[in-house]
Write a structure and sequence with these properties.
Blueprint (H helix, E strand, L loop, with lengths): L13 H10 L8 H17 L3 H4 L2 H30 L32 H8 L2
């Protein structure tokens, strides 16, 4: 924060002033002025929408990243299972019997991504190729 500061009058409700007096030590601010300045910078960043990760708590950011990563893993596994299903000859009772006789797409003939596992039945289907 810059050393040179501008002095101006600020009006706030008694409740807000009480809240500032309560909260500034918790935020490790030395003065109420520092707390108010940080609050204004935080709110300005939220309103502008830039660098949202700076303003989100670290725990929330980690939880969002973890959820996205887990979802990505599930989608990869399901796509791989679907690709194997499309590549195997369809049986008469299969809902995929409409796809029988079609050439599978190129992505359907590849192994699962590194670090991903598949069921023993899927492995047997892949070994029959």
């Amino acid at each position: 924060m810059p050393r040179e500061k501008i002095k101006f009058a600020l009006r706030m409700s008694p409740e807000t002033q009480r809240l500032v007096k309560e909260m500034y030590p918790r935020d490790n601010c030395r003065t109420q002025n520092e707390f108010i300045e940080k609050a204004i910078r935080f709110y300005s960043g939220c309103v502008s929408g830039q660098d949202a990760c700076e303003f989100l708590p670290a725990a929330l950011t980690d939880a969002l990243r973890s959820t996205v990563h887990d979802s990505e893993g599930r989608v990869c596994r399901l796509l791989f299972k679907l690709a194997v299903e499309l590549d195997t000859p369809a049986t008469s009772g299969s809902p995929l019997s409409l796809c029988a006789g079609r050439t599978p797409p190129a992505w359907a003939t590849t192994a699962p991504p590194a670090g991903r596992t598949c069921s023993p039945a899927t492995l047997r289907k892949l070994q029959r190729r």
